[in-house]
UniProtKB/TrEMBL annotation:
Belongs to the GIPC family. SUPFAM superfamilies: PDZ domain-like. It comes from Pelecanus crispus (Dalmatian pelican). This is PDZ domain-containing protein GIPC1. Transmembrane segments: none annotated. Residues 41-108 form the PDZ domain.
Length: 240
């Protein structure tokens, strides 16, 4: 059932956060769905303001851990793993929350206090599955000859579009890094949307207004918006 799917990876069955399905899919890509497995409860003493977690979500109510910072409080808690779905915090179900909401809840936890996480790890049913062989026979069609990708959107239908230019790719990568720095999340679709929003804007004020119209729920801080505008400009000027 779709509700059991935690996240998907492209061209690998492994829990590889560098291979997550995002807004764009190559027309020959293989998609692997990772489903919910074992549940676990962990109590943690928050000894640091920062937990060392980067959180993302699948867009349908499943926030999961994308990265754990080496040496962080979370890294020292060996039961917490990359790919784990955060189901509840101190008994509060967060399964319907977006990744930035979960990140804020964790950040707001009081330092020096114990808190409990309820996690669901991805099922490890395919550990012995070998990667698909290179090559192979495919129908003699031309859909893979160009640079088209399937673009998934939260609202509206999926569309086949041209892949981002090299300049836009660099801007998206930089904005994704800024999202992690400021908000503790990684989201290439969100980063791509922000880059697209700034494509035809002439100054940071226009960009901020446009961003607020389409992504106002995020309540981005002013300094973050300014840095995103700078990253888009740096990419256009070839400084990235």
């Amino acid at each position: 059932p779709p509700a059991q799917i935690m996240f998907c990876t492209l061209n690998t069955h492994k829990v590889d956060m560098d291979k997550l399905l995002d807004a764009q899919i190559g027309l020959e890509d293989f998609i692997f769905a990772h489903v919910k497995g074992q549940r676990k409860e962990i109590e943690i003493l928050k000894t640091d303001d920062v937990l060392g977690l980067t959180i993302t979500d699948n867009g349908t109510g499943c926030a999961f851990i994308k990265r754990i910072k080496e040496g962080s409080l979370t890294d020292q808690t060996k039961m917490i793993c990359v790919g784990d779905h955060i189901q509840a915090i101190n008994g509060k179900n967060v399964s319907d929350c977006r990744h930035y909401e979960v990140a804020k809840m964790l950040k707001d936890l009081e330092k020096g206090q114990m808190f409990k996480l309820e996690l669901v790890e991805p099922m490890k049913a395919f550990e012995n599955l070998e990667p698909r062989p290179k090559g192979g026979t495919l129908p003699d069609v031309n859909i893979s000859r160009g640079r088209g990708t399937l673009r998934l959107r939260t609202k509206g239908p999926a569309t086949v579009e041209e892949m981002p230019s090299e300049v836009e790719k660099k801007a998206i990568e930089k904005v994704d890094e800024l999202l992690e720095t400021y908000m503790g999340i990684r989201d290439t679709e969100l980063a791509a949307t922000m880059v697209e929003t700034g494509r035809d804007k002439k100054n940071p004020d226009e960009f901020a207004v446009a961003l607020d119209e389409i992504l106002g729920d995020f309540a981005f801080p002013d300094e973050f918006v300014f840095d995103v505008w700078g990253a888009i400009g740096d990419a256009k000027q070839g400084r990235l």
